[in-house]
Amino acid sequence: xxxxxxxxxxxxxxxxxxxxxxxxxxxxxxxxxxxxxxxxxxxxxxxxxxxxxxxxxxxxxxxxxxxxxxxxxxxxxxxxxxxxxxxxxxxxxxxxxxxxxxxxxxxxxxxxxxxxxxxxxxxxxxxxxxxxxxxxxxxxxxxxxxxxxxxxxxxxxxxxxxxxxxxxxxxxxxxxxxxxxxxxxxxxxxxxxxxxxxxxxxxxxxxxxxxxxxxxxxxxxxxxxxxxxxxxxxxxxxxxxxxxxxxxxxxxxxxxxxxxxxxxxxxxxxxxxxxxxxxxxxxxxxxxxxxxxxxxxxxxxxxxxxxxxxxxxxxxxxxxxxxxxxxxxxxxxxxxxxxxxxxxxxxxxxxxxxxxxxxxxxxxxxxxxxxxxxxxxxxxxxxxxxxxxxxxxxxxx
Length: 397
What we know:
By secondary structure, this protein is an alpha+beta fold. Among the domains are: 14-139, DNA methylase specificity domains (Adenine-n6-DNA-methyltransferase TaqI, Chain A, domain 2), CATH 3.90.220; 188-331, Adenine-n6-DNA-methyltransferase TaqI, Chain A, domain 2, CATH 3.90.220. It has 13 helices and 17 strands. It has helices spanning 2-8, 18-21, 99-114, 128-133, 141-179, 224-229, 243-247, 293-302, 304-310, 321-326, 334-352, 358-376, 383-395; strands at 14-17, 22-26, 40-43, 49-52, 57-65, 75-83, 87-92, 135-138, 188-191, 196-201, 215-220, 233-234, 240-241, 257-260, 268-271, 281-286, 328-331. Strands 2-7-5-6-3-4 form a six-stranded mixed β-sheet. Strands 10-16-14-15-12 form a five-stranded mixed β-sheet. α5 packs antiparallel against α12 (358-376).
């Protein structure tokens, strides 16, 4: 706040309703106007940006949805674009207001405002008068430019990190597949059963499976969603078994590789604790003299697309135990397996870890941007401005 006070240097900040400083309206396109190979961006009611063969506007503007992700989705636009019928465009009509400054201010303050004004039971929506009544500060252009410069620096850093993460993920997939590709005769090809101490489906014998007596105890019960949401090691769970649940199931040890065969096919992750799981999940306990769970997981992840294709064609995608029992996989000497898995672990940490890798760095930069954005855009609001806003809202009914 000291920085903001120094920046203002005693200059009074004027507050104005958005309707006085901007043209506000909707587009005329609908989803039928989408063209996969269109030349112009087509902004709709979601974060996704479609394409269109035609454009409706050529300007610098802010676009927000009129329903759906209200307060979370903002597009800063320069140039030609098409716009959905239920998305709003905000085009500055005054020379003393910078569009990018307004963009940052709305990202900081608009959601809190609009959620108290919105209508609709299930799909929250915006009426044009709500936008017109939204009060915005108008400091001198020089101050707006400095705030934009600072905040754009943060967003540029985040964009660079996101681009780097995308590149690293592509690099990881390429390196993983290359590291796990062997010539015939170069390594031994074995089934999972041949390199396992234990290999089979989970158990959930009791019917009905949703019987409340089975749940609420101290034994973690892992489900397919828990495996899908884990990056490499399963560290959290959403359900537990009671003593009754444990007795009708099977407890698998920490380090077991879990493989989904229903709903989410061929998702893999390793137990970070002892746990049970249903028969929609296969458990693989590695024979430490022949392989490791980590190496086998990387093998299966490299084959995920092929395994998913095997499970398609039914009402609900699934794959049977026999597919994995008959699957022959490459197993070089144990020391080489460990070396490959260790290198891939480093890539995995970089691309997926929210504690050590790029995703963590991106999350921190985003929080940093939001923190400074909210500080830099918190201007003193005179009491008469509030009174003016209240009178406008009453006039709009």
